[in-house]
Amino acid sequence: MNIAIKDVVPWQVGLFEGCCGVGDFALGVCHRRRLLNFPPSCGRKYKSLRHDKKLTIKDIAAAAGVSAATVSLVLNGKGEISSVTRARVLEAVASLNYVPRVAKSGSAAAATLRFLKIAKHGHTVNRDHSVFISDYIDGMSSEASRRSYKLEIASFEGQPISAVAETIAGAPISGVIVLGTELTEEDIVLIQGLGVPTVFIDTFHPIVDANFVDMNNEDAVHKVLARFQEQGFERIGFVTSHVDTTNFRLRREAFFSNVDRLGITIDPADILSVESTYEGSYLDTRRLLSDGLKLARCYFCTNDIIAYGFIRALREHGVSIPGDVSIIGFDNLPQSATMNPSLTTIEVSKRKIGYLAVAILDEIINAGEPQPPVKILVGAELVLRDSHDAGNSNGTATLLRSGSVADQLISSSSARKA
Fold first, then answer.
1. What residue spans of 96-212 are helical by DSSP H?
2. Residue 41: DSSP 8-state
3. To which H or E segment does residue 247 belong?
4. Is the CB of residue 323 less than 8 Å from the CB of residue 390?
5. Are 405 and 360 in contact (CB under 8 A)?
6. CA angle at residue 275 from 271 to 278, to 5 degrees?
């Protein structure tokens, strides 16, 4: 596996090569379920080792408190290593900016794809959503390796899009995959106009001439509302956010189009708007409750992070979940399965989005002539847990699946579930 880090913010990115196809990747430290960014002033034990000498796996082993053999297994994606140990090793790798030696080869260097992790304001691209980045990279790195590309990761926080675009123009890369979560339509047009083969993920604009791979928000929200309707709930609420992201907007639109489709009557008082962070959602919900909010019988939350803060405030206010209020989230973050009560939520395969993006990019790069834009929506699964149904309280999860809309450029073999 050929993976590299573009050291845009040196303390913010970690690096290793030889990881397993859809397994583990260090970005900060990103181990599927974690993204830990340690600035130089953080005071962690790794700091003193960072610049003293050329690092070896023995140094990583010492910092992580494991054997050198364990470090080697983690970096090469081998062995039965526990998730806790693997995360500790990757934390040390990233915090020390350790770069493993690449084996020499007589073959030509692989073409390079660059993934741009862009956080314009950080309301949604942040530590709370680190698993998104990990899973996207898992999918991209697997497919990039299969197609003989080297994957390079660049991270940008709070920088103007014009500055991000300058790093692409003239860069020795074959194509770009852009995390578009916090980008506006104007940002996308700017990057697309550079003439470098580009695919945007985690955003979607139907009339913009660009390539997109995103989740099918319309279909996913339909599943949520249909489930509430099947349970006989007559008063259905929606917890949205005033933070401006495309997927938030698409879910709002999907909510209202689907209540019309299903013949559901919505009271405007049951549409709540909160901050998109965990703490912000909690504080905004607590304020609404203090102001005398009359709760609906069930709520669809725009994402899991908002749901976590919403549930925390409700429980502090003496509200039983799901006895008094049923809740469904969106994202299926790891904590959703382990919290009490476990959260019913929407799951969309981020790994699938990642490797579909690489597959599209490869088609564009190797096409003999300009290609029309490709726009793919990946379908969802409704993961049934405890938070939405008092009768389903055994902690088990059930999946209700929906289809995906995929362009014919992607073969069925490439579209297997990651």
1. 130-146, 161-168, 185-192
2. G
3. helix 246-262
4. yes
5. no
6. 115
Q: Which residues contact 15 (CB under 8 A, 6 or more apart)?
A: 3, 4, 5, 26, 93, 94, 97, 98, 99
The backbone torsions φ and ψ at residue 307, rounded to the nearest 5 degrees and listed phi first, read -60, -40
Tokens matching residue 203: 């955003």
Find the helix or strand (DSSP H, E) in which 94 lies.
Answer: helix 83-95
Letter for the amino acid at 377? Answer: L
* Distance in angstroms (rounded) separating the CA atoms of residues 135 and 31: 9
State whether residue 336 is helix, strand or coil.
helix
Q: Which of 360, 285, 291, 287 is nearest to 325 (CA)?
A: 285
Looking at residue 34, its pLDDT comes to: 32
400 touches 332 (CB < 8 A):
no
Exposure of 367 in the CB half-sphere (CA atoms within 13 A): 14
Q: Which of 391, 240, 249 is nearest to 326 (CA)?
A: 391
Instruction: Write out the H or E segment, with its range, that includes residue 106.
Output: none
Q: Which H or E element spans position 383?
A: strand 381-384
Site of tokens 């007589």: 106
The rounded distance, in Å, linking the Cα atoms of 225 and 237 is 10
CA 370 and chain centroid, separation: 30
Distance CA 336, CA 178 (A): 27
Name the H helices within 96-181: 130-146, 161-168
Pairing of strands 398-401, 381-384: antiparallel
Encoded tokens for 74: 């983690």
Which parts of the chain register pLDDT below 70?
A: 1-54, 74-79, 83, 87, 90-91, 93-110, 122-132, 390-418
Which residues, in sequence order, are CB contacts of 78 under 8 Å at separation 6+? 20
